Amino acid sequence: MNGLPAALFPEPPRRVPAYRALSVALRTVHLATFAALLGGHLFDVDAARLVPWLYATIASGAGLMALELAVSCAWLSTGKGLAVLVKLSMLAVVPWCWGWRVPILFAVVALASVAAHMPRRFRHYQLLPALRGSTPPR
């Protein structure tokens, strides 16, 4: 591969300095801020008070995605990458299904838990055979 494909799907995948430490730090922030956001919606906290938690959740989630994509964009078509895309799709409907936001947020938590704890062969499975060399072994 040359040019843009090689940049997006490097073989072998790039190594990101301090990847593990950054991932753990971002995941910790993401879980804490999402927990505050979910609790706020569950207990009907004023929306204005939840905005900083929403932004922090979005920023930490974007940071986690950026970290994975820095290694290889092939992550998007792995089991765990697809789970993130499904979670984002679920979250995208919240503004139109406001009355269902709490069950949707709990469903996102459930999907996140299942995706994080499913067997490695599913989490890291590359759905697109052409990208298998671009997916880092874990």
Structural overview:
- With 138 residues, this protein is mainly α.
- It has 2 domains: 17-71; 73-138, no CATH class.
- 65% of the residues lie in helices and 0% in strands.
- It is built from 6 helices and no strands.
- The protein has helices spanning 3-8, 19-42, 47-71, 79-92, 101-117, 120-123.
Number of helical stretches of at least 4 residues: 6
Total DSSP E strands:
0
Number of domains: 2
Distance between the termini: 23 Å
One letter per element, helices H and strands E, the order comes to HHHHHH
Amount of beta strand: under 5%
What's the helical proportion of residues?
Answer: 55-70%
Q: What class would the helix/strand composition place it in? A: mainly alpha
Compute the CA-based radius of gyration: 17 Å
Low-confidence parts, pLDDT < 50 over ≥5 residues? Answer: none
Principal-axis shape equals: elongated
**How confident overall, as mean pLDDT?**
93
Largest sheet, strands/sense/barrel: none
Oligomer: single chain
